[in-house]
Amino acid sequence: MPSTIVVFRSFIRALLSRASCLLLLGALSPAAFAGYWTGVTRSLPASPLGNTVALSCHNCYGTTNAATTTQVSMALDRGFDLVEFDLTLHADGQVYVEHADSESAVGTFANALANTALQQSDRMLFLEIKEGYSTAAASDTLMLGVLRAIRDWGYATAGRPVMLRAFMDGNNRHQHLVRAKALLAQAEFASIRDHVRFHALIEADVRNGIRTAKSLGFHGVELEYRMASLFGAVGQAKLLGLGVGVYTTPASLGELYLSAMREDVDFITTDYDRGTTALATSARALVTEATSLLHMNTLAQTAYPLTYKRSGTADYPVAQGSTMPALEVLAVTSDEDRVGGSMVFGGAQSVTTWQADNDANGGFLVSAIVNFDDLTSGATAAILAKSDSGGFALEQAGTLLRFGVYVNGAYQYATVPLLAFNGTDSYFIVGAYDGNGAVRLWVNNTERTPSVSVTGGVGLNTSPIVIGADPQGATDRRYFFKGKIQQVMVQRWRNH
Fold first, then answer.
1. Can you give the CATH number for the domain in which 285 is found?
2. What angle do CA 341, 344, 347 make, to 5 degrees?
3. Are residues 22 and 134 in the same domain?
């Protein structure tokens, strides 16, 4: 049972912040309720649980017009939804496609848009303004060139929006977006103004940056995928009615990042499957692959019964009871490591879901968003587990956080010292084993110490997946966790 102090604190916070969260939920834009991509013509990839995730081909261009055409062809062939061009203005008054303002002979924006295959496709443009902001007049020269090119080449149409993007940074590049919004009010842009969206890429002073993006009338924010307390920022953006995505997940082990985040964001910019030869499993296939066993995110849940999903879109209820965790609801204005709802485990609570197993020769991919309350006792404490002579465990043990799977009659673990954590931040923790190779563990999307290499499917058992404790059969529990858990996810996992 939680202590009286914990329950009282959670109750008072809930009373104070639940109203704030509910008011914000009531104030969300229609797109936030129906999905950020509602109304888009292209059939975007949807996870087995129903979340739509658009995939952006990172830096989808080359140093010449021909090289850019080649990169765009690759993006079209491999099913990317968003084609990313970086844009600068040269002294000759033309807009160019490049990462930095080189003033050298690189491909022009007009030539990139003149690509017939891209024009006739249903792919959307992800346009990042790289030019530093100096004056409104200089910005207007750049943004008029961008907007006119979009209009004249037939982009930004109903069902096919164009996203203008810029960093909110010391160079004030997001001010180009402010200027573009003002320019769109001119009569010459009447045909495209309703089909242009604005995104801020934010790496510093993130929570204030998200609020600023909202106040400026932007439509979305993009966050660095390894940032601290990532999902606190994701949650803030969602509760404010903004679309939210992450950048730039790498090519190496890119399948893990795409699969681990597919349920909780609206778009992902990635380098996965950008090589000369297409990979056997595309980014789109990873989003849609029928691997889900469990997903629970309490961000927008403010009261019992809580719900989770299994392998499809149906919700499964979790009723309140004496052994269930308290629910803490943090207002979007709190600027804590999480916002919205989280389950509070005081050392005697757990949530039992269902008996879901991996494939006989395969493994598991699991994740959790966690804030720790006990980092020093050395007690074994399970965050998410199906570890009953089989299955997996994401848990604290002594001085380590570890993820283990039961292979060939024993548990094999990837680890990270608990000294790497604090009780203030929230952590996005991912563990994975695909049936052949090391057991792996990531904290905030940075890999930690893997196990030795092993081969074999994870042993099956009949115990349920439990949040906050270790299952011993259908009803017995041990190794109770102390802390807050906002999200858990379990997927079947194989070698991709």
1. 3.20.20.190
2. 165
3. no
Q: Which of 404, 402, 400 is nearest to 391 (CA)?
A: 404
| pLDDT by residue, tens only, the chain of 496 residues | 334 333 334 433 433 333 443 434 333 333 333 589 999 999 999 999 999 999 999 999 999 999 999 999 999 999 999 999 999 999 999 999 999 999 999 999 999 999 999 999 999 999 999 999 999 999 999 999 999 999 999 999 999 999 999 999 999 999 999 999 999 999 999 999 999 999 999 999 999 999 999 999 999 999 999 999 999 999 999 999 999 999 999 999 999 999 999 999 999 999 999 999 999 999 999 999 999 999 999 999 999 999 999 999 999 999 999 999 999 999 999 999 999 999 999 999 999 999 998 888 899 999 999 999 999 999 999 999 999 999 999 999 999 999 999 999 999 999 999 999 999 999 999 999 999 999 999 999 999 999 999 999 999 999 999 999 999 999 999 999 999 999 999 999 999 9
Can you give the CATH number for the domain in which 465 is found? 2.60.120.200
| Structural domain count of the chain | 2
Q: pTM of the prediction?
A: 0.93
- 191 shares its domain with 333: no
Cα–Cα distance for residue pair 202/213, rounded to 1 Å: 9
d(CA 487, CA 265): 13
Task: From residue 305, give the alpha-carbon distance in Å to each of 202, 308, 316, 342, 385.
Answer: 35, 10, 9, 13, 22
Q: How far apart are CA 201 and CA 151, in angstroms?
A: 24
Single out the residue in 289, 305, 339 at which a domain terminates.
289
Nearest to 408 by CA among 457, 365, 356, 463: 457
- Domain region containing 325: 4-26+295-493
- Whether the bond into 325 is cis, omega within 30 of 0: no
